[in-house]
Amino acid sequence: MIDFDEKSIVAVRRTGDGERFALFTNADVQAFWEQKFWTVALDTGGDGFGLPVRYGTVSSAPVGWTLRQLILVAQARAALEYARVPDGGALAVLEALGKAVRQMQAGEPLGAGVEFCPGGVASPYRWTKARCGDLAIELCPDPESRQEGIVPEQLLIVADEALRDWAARAPYISRLWTCRNAVREALAAEIRRVRIARLVAGESGEGG
Prior knowledge:
Helix content is 39%, strand content 17%. Strand 7 and strand 8 (135-138) form a beta hairpin. It has four helices and eight strands; from the N terminus they run E-E-E-E-E-H-H-E-E-E-H-H. The protein has helices spanning 67-84, 90-103, 152-169, 174-204, and strands at 9-14, 21-25, 39-43, 48-54, 65-66, 115-117, 129-132, 135-138. With 208 residues, the protein is α+β, with helices and mostly antiparallel strands. Helix 1 runs antiparallel to helix 2 (90-103) and helix 2 packs antiparallel against helix 4 (174-204). 40% of the residues are buried.
C-alpha cells in the first residue's frame, strides 16, 4: 500500500459501489502550481497505486498524466467495451467523453502521446495498459470492474475532481464547466454500465 501523510489528504472519493477509493493528496504540491493535488492514491482492488496528475496548464505539475490524457484513456476503453457489447451502456460513456474532449485545450500531440498495449492478465480487451513515456496505467481487465487494476470509473473521478478545482480557480472559463459537466455525465453512465455488466455476468454464471 502507498505510504502518505494523512494530513496531506485534500479529498476522498469512492466508486459508485463503494468498493474502491481515490485519495487526493497535496504532498509535494508547489505554491505556484494551479492545482490542489498532484498524486492520487487509487485502490486497485489488491493494492494501492500512485497516479501523478497535472492539469495541463502552464502553472501545473511538471510530470504526470494530463486531464486530457486521462479522459482519452477512459474514452478508448469505452470504445473497446462498446465494440464488445454495443447495447451494454458504453455508448453513453463515449458520447459524454466526446463532449468533454472537445472542450479540452489543444496543444498536446495527436492522441495526447498515449500508447496502448496488452497487460499481463487475460482480458476480453486487446489492451489493458496505457503508457505515456515512463508513466503507465494498468486497467482492470474485466468489464465488470471486479479484478485487480484501475477501473475506468476511477479515471473519471480523478478528472472530475481536478476539473472541479480548476473551474473554481478560473470560473470565467466556461469550457471548464462544460467539460466537467460532460465528465460527470460520463461518470454516471460508467456507473450504470458497470451495473449492467455485473447483472449480465451474474445471470450468465460468469460473475466472480
